[in-house]
């Protein structure tokens, strides 16, 4: 039988371990490509979130990033100093400010995304056969189920 102590099969435990290791390596490699712009991981994360979700208050960013408001304030200050974010009054609550990306930040985020995607596409092209790439696509559909409800 393919069973471990906690009722998790050996194959599930092995798949989980292998996925964690491989995705960790892939994440580090993709981060190396992005790091050419000298952003900290927290700065890159905030820019990415604003790019995907649109303007947000500092408190909403802190909650979404699961960090203290003081940490987001420092991150935003550094991004603002570099001209990557701007603050505007919230039209629904004038006491709050909304943070949004500047044009320079949009270009940076899109350039980073494109560089990472091109690297990955090139690696798949150069290191995998067409059949292996189809296997990766099929595996991604299975992995997508792990992130769903």
UniProtKB/TrEMBL annotation:
Matching InterPro entries: HTH-type_Bedaq_tolerance, HTH_MarR-typ, WH-like_DNA-bd_sf, WH_DNA-bd_sf
Entry-linked PROSITE patterns: HTH_MARR_2
The organism's place on the tree of life at top rank: Bacteria
Annotated HTH marR-type domain residues: 12-148
SUPFAM superfamilies: Winged helix' DNA-binding domain
Gene3D superfamilies in UniProt: 1.10.287.100, Winged helix-like DNA-binding domain superfamily/Winged helix DNA-binding domain
Listed name of the protein: MarR family winged helix-turn-helix transcriptional regulator
Organism from which the protein derives: Kitasatospora paranensis
